[in-house]
Design goal:
This protein has 200 residues and is α+β, with helices and mostly antiparallel strands. Helices cover 21% and strands 35% of the residues. The protein has one domain: Nucleoside Triphosphate Pyrophosphohydrolase, CATH 3.90.79.10.
């Protein structure tokens, strides 16, 4: 899938830009969820779209060592979820806002760890040199969108919690193991883009 095809498919099926939608995962919430936003950023390399991901340091209290998108909690001074995602991406990996074209949002994703995450989908319009904040990111890497679009590479398993079964998404890729909210958001994007899979 090239950039033109990606834009066409995403625009045909995506949510309106900068709109806040309820989560696709529903479970009983006992305390208010903390709002967060992540940048689902795609870059084009040799006419191949690649998704940018990071690995979190092991010393972090929240999700240590896990694979994630650049992003974080919404601050009071952020004007929108888009602002949060762009600010966090600049802080974590040195991605300049002027090099990012936001094209829309995915459905929010609620987590058991108390976050309500808004995925902000974007295209990196210009090459940039990553500047990693070691306090937030251990490693930055990319995965070809073509690999992720292959449904055989995306998996789901159900786990019981409090007598209720919940889906957990996971995607093995080389030495990386993507799971949880990040894998679920990738799966949502891929289903939206794929013509042979139902949209959700």
């Amino acid at each position: 899938m090239d950039l033109v095809d990606f834009r066409l498919r995403f625009n045909l099926h995506s949510l309106p830009k900068a709109h806040h939608f309820p989560s696709t995962l529903s479970f009983e919430v006992k305390q208010p969820l903390r709002k967060a936003a992540v940048l689902v950023a795609l870059s084009s390399y040799n006419d191949q779209l690649e998704l940018i991901l990071t690995r979190r340091p092991s010393h972090l209290r929240q999700h240590p060592g896990q694979i994630s998108f650049p992003g974080g909690k919404v601050e009071k001074f952020d004007l929108s979820f888009e602002d949060t995602a762009l600010r966090e991406a600049q802080e974590e990996i040195g991605l300049p806002n002027k090099h990012v074209e936001v094209i829309g949002m995915l459905h929010d994703h609620k987590t058991f760890t108390g976050f309500d995450i808004t995925p902000v989908v974007s295209i990196i319009s210009k090459p940039f040199t990553p500047v990693i904040d070691p306090g937030e990111v251990d490693e930055l890497f990319t995965i070809p969108l073509s690999f992720l679009l292959n449904s055989n590479n995306r998996h789901i398993q159900y786990f019981s919690r409090g007598g209720i079964e919940y889906p957990v998404h996971f995607i093995p890729y080389g030495r990386y193991f993507i799971w949880g909210a990040t894998a679920a958001m990738i799966d949502q994007l891929c289903r939206l883009l794929s013509q042979d899979e139902p949209l959700c």
